[in-house]
């Protein structure tokens, strides 16, 4: 088994956030959050070590661009959670890894493995 990852979950839909968190915990990873807003996510990033993030693109009418920029500054890889296709999201996310919602455990774990490959 690989080392557990500290995964920041940024998702404003409570049920989806809890499903993702449960999937991560069941797979042995530590969940940071879930954060339902940009402000909450930025606070969690500042207060916790984070290895990788799963980031909802749209959060209650605001985009998560500020979160993506902070993650990039800290060299923390992330995947975008979205119900939209990659062409429908802001260009800041153009080269991001996308996980289509609703995501199942296999899709989430595959994204994590691509973002943080094991040696």
TrEMBL record:
InterPro entries: Bact_response_regulator, CheY-like_superfamily, Sig_transdc_resp-reg_receiver
Gene3D superfamilies referenced in this protein's UniProt entry, alphabetically: 3.40.50.2300
GO terms of biological process kind: phosphorelay signal transduction system
Tree of life domain: Bacteria
Domain called Response regulatory: residue spans: 6-116
Key words of the record: Phosphoprotein
Residues with PTM 4-aspartylphosphate: 56
Record-given protein name: Response regulator receiver domain-containing protein
Species this chain originates from: Mesorhizobium muleiense
């Amino acid at each position: 088994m690989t080392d557990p990852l500290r995964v920041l979950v940024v998702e404003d839909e409570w049920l989806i956030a809890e499903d993702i968190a449960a999937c991560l915990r069941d797979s042995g990873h530590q969940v940071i959050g879930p954060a339902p807003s940009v402000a909450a996510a930025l606070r969690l990033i500042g207060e916790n070590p984070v290895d990788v993030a799963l980031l909802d693109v749209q959060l209650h009418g605001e985009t998560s661009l500020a979160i993506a920029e902070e993650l990039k500054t800290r060299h923390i890889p992330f995947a975008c959670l979205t119900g939209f296709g990659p062409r429908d999201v802001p260009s800041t996310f153009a080269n991001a890894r996308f996980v289509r919602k609703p995501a199942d455990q296999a899709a989430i774990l595959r994204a994590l493995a691509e973002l943080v490959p094991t040696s």
